[in-house]
Amino acid sequence: MMSWLFLAGAIVTEVTATLCLRASDGFAKLGFTAVVVVGYIASFWCLSQSLQRGMSLGVAYGVWSGIGVATVAVLGRLFFDDGLSAVTVGGIALIIVGVVVVQLGGTHAEA
After folding, report:
1. Coarse DSSP helix, strand, coil percentages of the chain, rounded to the nearest 5 percent
2. Phi and psi for 84 in degrees, rounded to 5?
3. Can you give the pTM of this predicted structure?
4. Higher pLDDT pick, 110 / 102
5. Which residues, 6 or more positions from 44, have their beta carbon under 8 angstroms from its beta carbon?
6. pLDDT digit string, tens, across residues 24-80
C-alpha cells in the first residue's frame, strides 16, 4: 500500500512541476522555476521510494508517466487554454487503458 501512496505523491509532484514549467515563462519567473526544480526532485524521490517498497519498474513507470501525461493534458487545457482535440482525448483514453493493462499485467506477474 505504501508503494502506491509514494507513486501518487510522485504523480502529483511531477504534474505540479510540469505545470509550473509552463508557467515559468522559460525560467524567467523564479518562483515557478523553484517549484519546477523542487517538484521534479520530489517526484523522482517518491518514485524511487515506490520502487524500493517492491513495486515493479514497469508498473511504476507506466502508471507514473501515463497518468502524468493525461493529467497534464487536461490541466493544460484548463489553466493554459491548450488545445484538446477529439484525437487528443482519444489518445488520453488509450493512455488510461494502457495504464490499466500494465497494472493488471504487473499484478498477475507478481502472483
Report:
1. 85, 0, 15
2. -145, 80
3. 0.87
4. 102
5. 10
6. 999 999 999 999 999 999 999 999 999 999 999 988 998 999 899 999 999 999 999
What 18-25 contacts at long range (C-beta under 8 Å, 24+ apart), as own/partner pairs, is: 18/68, 18/72, 19/72, 19/75, 19/76, 19/79, 22/76, 22/79, 22/80, 23/79, 23/80
Is the backbone of residue 77 left (phi > 0), alpha (psi -120 to 50) or beta?
Answer: alpha
C-alpha cell at 4: 502506491
Q: Is 45 exposed, middle or buried (0-12, 13-18, 19+ CB in 10 A)?
A: middle
